[in-house]
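Lay summary

Proteins are chains of building blocks that fold into shapes. Our project writes down both the chain and a compact code for its shape. Here are two examples, one after the other.
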Amino acid sequence: MTVENPFHIYVSSLSGGRIDVFDLNADTGEMSRKQTVGLSGKGLPLAVSPDRRRLYASVIGEVDGEEAPRYETFRIASASGELVHLATVKAPARMAHISVDRTGRFLLGASFPSDLIAVHPIGARGYVQETPSDLRSAPSKAHQIMTDASNRFAFVPNFGAALVMQLLFDERTGTFSDNSPPSFEQPAESRPRHVAHHPDGRFVYLLNEKEGVVVACALDARAGTLAEIQRENIMPEAFEDEPWSAQIHVTPDGRQLFCSERRSSTLCRFAIDLRSGRLSERSLQDTDEVPRCFDIDPTGKWLVSAGQMTSQLIAYRIDGESGRLEETSRVGTSDEPVWVEIVELP
């Protein structure tokens, strides 16, 4: 790894059934292809271990004409960032989202089609284990799952039930229990999709897919529960079609929030007040068609977005003050990119 290229980008593709690996030049924002690895089926979400030595992929395979969901484990080469396949195990369902808990000992998964959430132990060598430590039903169409900074609480937006599950997480056993109250309710038909945690641990931001709204929430650090602060529209002013919001991220310094919106093919940005968590100064950036996935690098200087319909990966420089995006490069990906992870090697 050179000083000029400390960041690596991992992009999974649905139709392509691959993970593309790119270098991102930290000075110029130029991207260059490094590697493409095959998956055992269609690519779904990715997750990276806290030590940045393992990458996990959720995959839709096929056996005898039937859908066969799987987890694949890859080693991230310490010098180059290239991927080395280590293991494949069965997953209990097709996962809309996966994440690794803060200890790196458990992989969490949320299944949209099967209405369930799962926890799988990660072995000493970093391999996902097939037998889950917890497997339970979700109200309807679980779309994402991740723990907070304390690793004591987990939140699960449920697309079909207009709520976010509020769970207690035991990092010793890899099991959940219901919090009180067990959910953070949203308006009917809002379709909660993803949350993003503020780096100071006091705020959580919820993106509602069919409402086209981001909800700023206060996080009670003792109770692990959410309380609404503010609701803001992310759609272009004159846009009349139904919203189709996708992903949400907060910059590492906690000052900027970005959302992707697929129907209008825009990236929406807000400034975050560090004291109150409130959002202001909304701005929009046109981007490639259907920006289903994007990520922000660990320095907060670069945003990389993928157009699902164009199979293009676009790097933007983020202005630290205004949040304005400036395109710096673009490269082609395998067909239908659906997840982007930017990793700085240890």
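And here is the second example, written the same way.
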Amino acid sequence: MAVLNQIQPEKVFHYFEEISGIPRVSLLTKEISDYLVSFARERNLDCRRDEAGNVIIRKDASAGYEAAEPVILQGHMDMVAVKEAGVEKNLLKEGLDLEVNGDSISAKGTSLGGDDGIALACALAILDDDSIPHPPLEVVFTTDEEIGMLGATMLDVSDLKGHILLNMDSEEEGVFTVSCAGGVTVLCHLPYETEELKSAALKVRISGLSGGHSGTEIHKKSANANILLSYLLSGLSEKVGIGLISMSGGEADNAIAASAEAHIALKEEDIAAAESFLRNVFAGRQEKYKATDPNMRLEITVGELRKRSVLTDSSTRKALLLLRFVPNGIDCRSRENPDIVQTSSNFGVLRTKEDSLELLISVRSSVEQEKKDLCARIRLAMESLGATVEFTGDYPGWEYRPESKLRNVMCGVYRQLFGREPRVEGVHAGLECGLFASKIPELDAVSFGPQINNIHSTREELIISSVQRFWELLLGTLRELR
């Protein structure tokens, strides 16, 4: 029985409910891809599907819009499927159970897939309604966005004629995203030598930092535990002689490290001075980061005097120097729009392996040359100390356009409809727009969407009134792109 059939816009919510009945977990999107192809064939719309399962559906311009430039509408098919403990639903094979709670739609015991099911629903509603005025449309539905934008990466755009892209994959109403970062992971290994020494030891642990996503939260300038640990150890090595035993910190290259620890060897008579120095320096860091990391704490544990495998003096010096060379945080903001972080790096992971120190660094930039320049600086610094450097997972960014016809049109429509200004922002993380921009020269794009709260969780909810306003904005934009 239909749950959303009384909600306006009727066609949008009709299609949202239909696709919510189709399992569409990442890597298992054939069924939803088949549905889109059948939809196009039933309406005699031109359709192409590629080996990745991406689907492109074309619709001719409505009357009076034949001379308008084609517009690309775009969203992704897959969703992040999670469920509450005890829920027996098989999300690989079963659809969702929708429910309406006042002004919101959610799914019983599972994530909703509003990201990016609402884009599919709006696009289908437009394709299925000949009364809506619009330019020629090229509607692109991509696969596997949630696990690395795999569909958009493989998409052949050579037959797309449009240079205007409306990406409907944002989750905050009233925000127009106009740039995104490209990125690459830097993997660094510094070989080291060890020796057996009889020494005392300290375990130094930093924890309780706020952490967060290194793209969307880098602008908060919160503390990075790996950087903080390197700062403490470098200072301590100048105060008393130390040898590194092991270090570890962070969980992923794209996450700001919330904790880190080191085991260090030192003389027994230096323990008291070392503890005092570390606590004094850490207190200064607590003061510096009291607004962003109020719960940061330092734990120091004293180990017994015994023989240990310790990095040699030379290896310890190289390791500590290497850590101080690692760039971290905002490197550059957009010159045209200083609110947008343009280039950054994040020292995400620190590990001592069997015979080397391993670092993982995430580099992001919406300007390809700046990304390359920062990577080159890291390589030079690391290799100067004898480390090896690899670059993996490179993906393109989407640079802010100082002049954008689409952005101007959308801002004007938004003001006319709602009597206020939208927020125009860049996101310091990867979006499919970056891949489209790398493949289509001079692409003019905006990413926008209705309000979706708590995405990728069982608390996900799609706000109905926001969808209604988003629909007005989408139709108004198409109407103005004459």
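What can we say about the second shape? The two ends are 40 Å apart (CA to CA).
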